[in-house]
Write a structure and sequence with these properties.
The chain is α+β, with helices and mostly antiparallel strands. 52% of the residues lie in helices and 13% in strands. The protein contains 13 helices and eleven strands. Strands 1, 2, 3, 4, 5, 6, 7, 8, 9, 10 and 11 form an eleven-stranded mixed sheet that branches. Helix 2 runs antiparallel to helix 9 and helix 2 packs parallel to helix 11. The radius of gyration is 31 Å and the shape is elongated.
C-alpha cells in the first residue's frame, strides 16, 4: 500500500510539493507566534529575577522597570538623595544600589552604580577586578573592551548627537560573566563619578537639578539648558557610603533581607514623592498585554490554516475526480473499499504530516532568528524552547489533518466501477 502511495506522489510531485509548502507556512506562523511569545516571557522574567524591589521617583511603573532593569533609554525624574541614604542604612535591606543613566560609549550605555550591584549580577568576574577608583569601569560580557581599555563617555548616544565628555576617561578594570540580561551590554562605573561629571554635589544642588533634570540621566540638564559639567578626580578612591546628603538618583535597585521586608519597603516607598515596585509585577501586566496580542496573532494564524486546509481539501477532491477511472478500475478488480479509503486518505495525510513537521521546524528557525536579533540589540537572552503543552498543539494539527484527509477518501467511493470500465 505504501509503495503505491509513494509511487502516486512521485507521479504528481509538483502538486504534492505545493501542498506541503502551503501547510508548512501556515503551521510555521502558529509555531513562531507561540515560541516567540514564550521566549519573551522567559527571557524577561529571567532578566528581572535578580531585582527584587525597585524604588524611583513617582511616575510610570512600567517605564521605571524598563529603564532600570532593561536599560531602555527614557527620561526619568530624580528623587531626593536622602531616599538612597535611608535605604542604604536600613537594617531590612541587604543591598541598595543606585543607578544613574544618560551617558554612553561605543553604543553601550554607561551606568553609574556600586560594586555591590556588580557582585549581585556577576558573583565572579570573567576578567580583571572591580573598580576601586572613580576613573575605573567594569564592562558587561558583551562589551568588546578588555581590561586596560579607555572609555570616553558621551552624553546621550551617537544617534542623538551627544557631546563627548572631556572631564574623564574611564579605564576598564574587569568584565562580568554573562548574565543573560541587558546589563551584559552595559558599562558600569562608580555612581560618584557620574554625579561629579554632571556637577552634582549633594543636597545643596539637588533641588535646582531636579527642576532641570529632564533627560534619562543622573543629573544632566535638559536640552533647553546648557550642560553643567564637573571635575572628576579619576584617581580618587571609591566611596560607596551614602547618607541624606547624597545627590539625587533616578532609581535604586533594592534587595530586601526577607519577603516580608520587601512588601513593607514597597508600601513605605509608595508615597507621593517615590514609587516602590516589584519588577515581576510590572512584567505580569506586560504579559497580559502580550497575551492579548498573542491571542490575536494565533487567531489570524488559525484562520489562515483553516483557509489553507479548505483549499487543499477542495484541490484534493478535484484531484480524486480526475482519477475516477483508476479508482473505479481498482474497485472493479475487487480491491476492498477500506483499501481504497486508506489509499486516498494515506496520500493526503502523508502530505499533511510532512507539511506539519516542516512547519514546526520552520517556525522554530524563525523564532530563533527573531530572538537572536532581539538579543543582539538588548542583550536579554530569549530562550526559544518547546514546552509539554506544545504536544497538544501538534496533536491538534494531526487530528485536524486526519479528519480533513477522510473527506477526499469518502468522495473516492462515488466512483462507479461499471462506469470506469466503460470509459
Amino acid at each position: 500500500m505504501m509503495t503505491f502511495i509513494f509511487a502516486d506522489l512521485r507521479r504528481f510531485w509538483s502538486g504534492a510539493l505545493a501542498v506541503v509548502v502551503l501547510i508548512a507556512l501556515s503551521v510555521a506562523l502558529s509555531v513562531t507566534v507561540t515560541l516567540q511569545e514564550r521566549a519573551v516571557r522567559l527571557g524577561s522574567a529571567r532578566a528581572a529575577e535578580k531585582f527584587d524591589l525597585l524604588v524611583g521617583a513617582a511616575g510610570s511603573e512600567t517605564q521605571l522597570a524598563l529603564s532600570a532593569v532593561f536599560l531602555q533609554p527614557a527620561p526619568l525624574p530624580l528623587m531626593d538623595g536622602a531616599v538612597l541614604g535611608r535605604l542604604a542604612n536600613d537594617p531590612r535591606v541587604e543591598l541598595a544600589a543606585p543607578v544613574g543613566f544618560g551617558d554612553s560609549a561605543d553604543g553601550f550605555p554607561i551606568v553609574g552604580t556600586t560594586t555591590s550591584l556588580i557582585s549581585a549580577l556577576s558573583p565572579n568576574l570573567s576578567q580583571g577586578a572591580h573598580f576601586s577608583r572613580l576613573g575605573e569601569a567594569v564592562v558587561g560580557s558583551d562589551v568588546a573592551l578588555s581590561p586596560g581599555a579607555q572609555i570616553k563617555p558621551m552624553h546621550g548616544t551617537a544617534e542623538t548627537g551627544g557631546e563627548t565628555h572631556t572631564a574623564i576617561a574611564y579605564t576598564v578594570t574587569g568584565r562580568m560573566i554573562p548574565t543573560g540580561t541587558a546589563w551584559d551590554r552595559a558599562i558600569l562605573v562608580p555612581i560618584r563619578a557620574v554625579w561629579q561629571l554632571h556637577g552634582m554635589h549633594g543636597e545643596e544642588h539637588h533641588d535646582h537639578e531636579n527642576e532641570e533634570a529632564g533627560s534619562h540621566d543622573a543629573g544632566e540638564k535638559d536640552h533647553g539648558h546648557e550642560h553643567e559639567h564637573g571635575h572628576v578626580d579619576a584617581d580618587a578612591p571609591l566611596d560607596e557610603h551614602f547618607d541624606a546628603q547624597s545627590p539625587g538618583v533616578p532609581a535604586i535597585l533594592v534587595k530586601p533581607k526577607t519577603v516580608a521586608d520587601a512588601y513593607r519597603l514597597r508600601q513605605e516607598y509608595r508615597t507621593g514623592a517615590t514609587l516602590g515596585v516589584f519588577p515581576a509585577e510590572v512584567l505580569t501586566r506586560l504579559y497580559a498585554t502580550l497575551g492579548d496580542a498573542r491571542s490575536l496573532l494565533l487567531a489570524i494564524a488559525l484562520g489562515t490554516q483553516a483557509i489553507v486546509i479548505a483549499a487543499i481539501a477542495l484541490v484534493t477532491i478535484m484531484h480524486v475526480g480526475t482519477r475516477w477511472r483508476q479508482i473505479g478500475a481498482l474497485r472493479a478488480l475487487g480491491t476492498p473499499v477500506r483499501s481504497i479509503i486508506v489509499l486516498v486518505w494515506g496520500e493526503l495525510f502523508l502530505l499533511f504530516v510532512a507539511g506539519i513537521a516542516s512547519g514546526i521546524a520552520l517556525g522554530y528557525a524563525a523564532a530563533s532568528a527573531i530572538s537572536a536579533r532581539l538579543t543582539a540589540s538588548t542583550a536579554v537572552r530569549l530562550p526559544v524552547e518547546f514546552a509539554p503543552d506544545d504536544l497538544w498543539l501538534a496533536a491538534g494539527f494531526l487530528a485536524v489533518a486526519a479528519a480533513v484527509s477522510i473527506v477526499p477518501a469518502l468522495a473516492a467511493l462515488r466512483s462507479s466501477p461499471a462506469a470506469a470500465l466503460r470509459a
